[in-house]
Specification:
Blueprint (H helix, E strand, L loop, with lengths): L3 E4 L5 H6 L3 E4 H7 L3 H10 L8 H13 L3 E7 L3 H12 L3 E6 L6 H15 L3 H28 L4 H9 L8 H15 L11 E6 L8 H7 L2 E6 H6 L9 H7 L6 H14 L4 E7 L8 H7 L4 E6 L7 H17 L3
Parallel strand pairs: 1-2, 1-3, 3-4, 5-6, 5-7, 7-8
The structure holds iron/sulfur cluster.
The site of iron/sulfur cluster (SF4) has 10 residues, from helix 4 and helix 5.
Length: about 325
């Protein structure tokens, strides 16, 4: 693939587009692949250990399958497995543009990182700022979908998740992405909830689930996710209208968990959530945050762990049903 630049997590994508690249979020490409499990197994045959997060192996597998020759690599603020993955890709001839979310989120440190990345990609911050204004117009469309989802509850969990995750890379073509989202917003029409079955309003926090039918299982049990914490952060909706550095400083995911908690608690209240799902990935260090989440959030929380791409197993399905029953009982007849 020529001119394609892979990303392994959310980065200042404006700089990549300003530099004339077509961006592919390798996470999205991994789960959209016809055989995501095959990509994980391909990575294992290439020497990735069993005890390593499947997202990392899937990203590696899809980067090989797509023949990606250039990536932006987050060396701080994402995860240590991700940093090791970059070393592997670099050893195989992939060009890596390093980027770090500075610990403590100091503006001058982030400014330096954004400047370094712009230079490495062969563009400027000024060009990135112009590009950001264009991408913000698309983010406003995603914000309209998000607002409609929690305001009226008439957007399916999977649709909301996909609409937000599309903005990590703008699907490689911001113009086409804008058209798709604009059509989606046009099609929303006037909310009609007459006769609709009241659904349990949920939020999901943590890294995006690797389980292929998680949304369907919840929807089939009468629940709906109206808050997708991390996809919403990936879409940078809170950074609309801000300059590049301010927007990526406000982005919560790569920094301390405290700011994420503030964002989550705000959503619990404003979106009137009845429960939260904390999705964690097997072998991921972010699992440790579960304790901090439970210390601060007072609504019911269900922890779900996923390992490899595939459907929800029977035990997890039973736990989901019991969790929703508990919420139903607590909310009365
Ligand atoms: S799930 Fe955790 S370990 Fe896996 S890539 Fe994401 S942050 Fe890293």
């Amino acid at each position: 693939m020529t001119n394609v630049l892979g990303i392994t997590t959310t980065v200042p994508v404006e700089l990549a587009y300003a530099a004339g690249r077509a961006v592919v979020d390798l996470n999205n490409a991994f789960v959209a692949d016809a055989d995501p499990l095959g990509l994980v197994e391909m990575a294992e045959r290439s020497g990735f250990p069993q005890g390593c997060c499947a997202w990392i192996k899937g990203i590696y597998g899809v980067a090989k399958r797509l023949g990606v020759r250039e990536v932006i690599g987050v060396v701080q603020g994402d995860c240590s497995d991700g940093a090791a993955l970059l070393e592997i890709l670099e050893s195989e001839g992939v060009r890596v543009h390093p980027f770090a979310y500075p610990h403590g989120r100091r503006r001058e440190d982030l400014e330096r990182e954004v400047g370094r990345l712009a230079e490495s990609l062969g563009t400027t911050i000024t060009a990135g700022e112009t590009c950001k204004q264009e991408l913000d117009a698309i983010r406003k469309l995603a914000r309209a979908v998000d607002t409609r989802a929690w305001g009226h509850g008439d957007i399916q969990s999977a649709v909301l998740s996909e609409s937000l995750l599309a903005l990590t890379d703008f699907q490689g073509d911001p113009g086409a992405c804008r058209h798709r989202l604009a059509a989606q917003v046009d099609a929303l029409g006037v909310p009609d909830v007459s006769g609709a079955m009241p659904r349990i309003r949920l939020g999901i926090v943590g890294v995006p689930p690797i389980l292929t039918d998680l949304w369907d299982v919840f929807e089939a049990c009468g629940a709906r996710f109206v808050f997708h914490e991390i996809p919403r952060q990936f879409a940078l909706l809170d950074g609309i209208g801000l300059d590049l550095v301010s927007a990526y400083q406000r982005y919560t995911y790569p920094y301390d968990f405290g700011r994420r908690l503030d964002d989550i608690c705000q959503a619990v209240a404003s979106r009137q959530l009845a429960g939260l799902v904390h999705y964690v990935q097997t072998f991921c260090h972010r699992q440790i945050h579960d304790r901090l989440l439970r210390e601060r959030v007072t609504i019911p929380i269900l922890g779900i762990e996923g390992d490899r791409p595939g459907p929800v197993d029977a035990r997890t399905r039973t736990r989901i049903e019991a969790f929703l029953e508990q919420i139903r009982r607590a909310s009365g007849p």
